[in-house]
Design goal:
Blueprint (H helix, E strand, L loop, with lengths): L1 E5 L10 H15 L3 E8 L1 E3 L2 E3 L8 E4 L2 E7 L8 H10 L11 H12 L10 E5 H15 L3 E5 L3 H5 L5 H13 L2 E4 L2 H11 L6 E3 L22 E5 L8 H12 L6 E5 L5 H10 L6 E5 L3 H9 L3 E4 L8 H8 L4 E4 L12 E3 L4 H13 L1 H17 L2 H17 L1
Parallel strand pairs: 1-2, 1-7, 2-6, 7-8, 8-9, 9-10, 11-12, 11-14, 12-13, 14-15, 15-16
Antiparallel strand pairs: 3-4, 5-6
Length: about 400
């Protein structure tokens, strides 16, 4: 079976969970002997100038059955109108080639990327999230092959009620155009039904999996591990960074033996730093910035507790990663991971009192940490990409036969 896939990012260039998920899905599909043509946006900077990567560029054969195709574009994961505008300003030549705003650039990219359906052999089309679904729609117009829309996050998750209507409309267009929709959780599935009025039978839940690079190991905690509570993710509204600081403030009002680390970058970083200063907890809160994958593992391994206080988290791969590295987890109930992880503390994102209690209990009771981590291991064994793609392949086959 041949797949024409439209993604945002792929190793070695990964900025967040979507790139990790795309890589995990591709690798698992390859292990099932599927052939994949993966189309990605890319604009190179060379010696301070912009090098345009066009359709004429040679595809890259990454491995048996995997070929990467690059289309010139400066779209990338987690862009918004403000950051897209900054990208244009950072590249003096960019205005000659790219859209005047983010939605315009996504449509320009889609028109070019969709044309690859003429030259890449495929049985199905698989597009990840709103940045690529229009390219998938264009490809379907050309080949008439089944279109799968893989939803990792929605505008309503990212925006906090102040949606970008252009992005919302693109998502809705994609959800209606797709033959089948993959949602990363029941939470996301229900949001698609409620907010976009899509027929429930059109949506299949495909949970994310744990990367092969996170090898589970017997529980063993270093005696000298410090009392560090970790937040890891984009510093943006969706991830609940202000609630994390409220929890830190609540704990530090009672005790001073705990440190809090915030790893990540994002549009609210400056505001979050200022909020920590306002709460007068700056000496106990450490901002680590963006971490690469090795640094992420290091951050987990130096922490006693991992906290994910997301306001709306479609899944939450980081919870699986933390547990695989023997770090107990406190997560918001408003997350997809809460559906599949039973041996974690689940708290409403706004309930900072209860979240603080759970964190302090995990800090103070080593046996509790060990019990939760060890009991989570069977769940992690099941949550892998090989199991996830079984549902994907079954849907591929069903649509092809129809």
């Amino acid at each position: 079976m041949k797949v024409l896939m439209y993604g945002w990012e792929f190793p070695p260039n990964i900025n967040g969970g979507l790139g990790i998920a795309c890589y995990g899905i591709v690798q698992a599909l390859l292990r099932q002997n599927l052939q994949i043509g993966l189309v990605l946006p890319r604009a190179k900077k060379t010696n301070g100038s912009l090098e345009i990567v066009d359709l004429a560029s040679e595809p890259e054969n990454q491995a048996d059955n995997l070929t990467l195709y690059y289309i010139d574009s400066i779209i990338k994961p987690y862009l918004n109108e403000q950051t897209y505008s900054q990208e244009l300003k950072a590249n003096p030549m960019a205005n000659q080639f790219y859209g005047n705003d983010l939605a315009a650039e996504v449509r320009r990219y889609a028109a070019k990327a969709g044309q690859l359906a003429k030259t890449i052999p495929h049985d199905v089309i698989h597009a990840h999230d709103w940045l690529t679904i229009l390219a998938g729609i264009e490809a379907k117009k050309i080949s008439q092959k089944p279109l799968f829309f893989h939803v990792h996050a929605l505008e309503i998750d990212r925006s906090g009620g102040q949606i970008n209507q252009a992005i919302f409309d693109i998502e809705k267009q994609g959800l209606y155009a797709a033959d089948k929709i993959f949602a990363v959780s029941k939470l996301t599935r229900q949001n698609i039904i409620n907010q976009y009025h899509i027929a429930p039978e059109k949506i299949e839940v495909i949970y994310n999996g744990l990367s092969e690079s996170y090898i589970q190991r017997p529980y063993e905690e270093e005696d000298n591990k410090q009392n560090i509570v970790l937040f890891l993710g984009r510093i943006t509204y969706q991830k609940g960074p202000f609630y994390f600081l409220d929890v830190a403030h609540k704990i530090l009002s009672k005790r001073q033996d705990i440190q809090f680390a915030m790893a990540g970058d994002g549009d609210l970083l400056r505001s979050v730093i200022e909020y920590a200063a306002k709460l007068r907890i700056g000496s106990h809160v450490h901002f680590l910035g963006f971490l690469d994958r090795n640094q992420v593992k290091d951050a987990y391994e130096h922490s006693k507790v991992y906290v994910m206080p997301s306001i709306s988290e479609p899944f939450g791969l980081s919870c699986l990663e933390a547990l695989a590295l023997n770090v107990p987890v406190v997560i918001s109930k408003q997350s997809g991971a809460a559906e599949v992880l039973q041996h974690v503390f689940k708290v409403d994102f706004w309930d900072v009192d209860l979240m603080a209690e759970k964190i302090m209990a995990l800090i103070d009771f080593p046996k509790l940490r060990k019990e939760l981590v060890q009991n989570s291991q069977p769940e992690l064994t099941v949550l892998n990409w090989d199991n996830s793609v079984k549902g994907i392949i079954k849907s591929y086959q069903s649509q092809i036969s129809n």
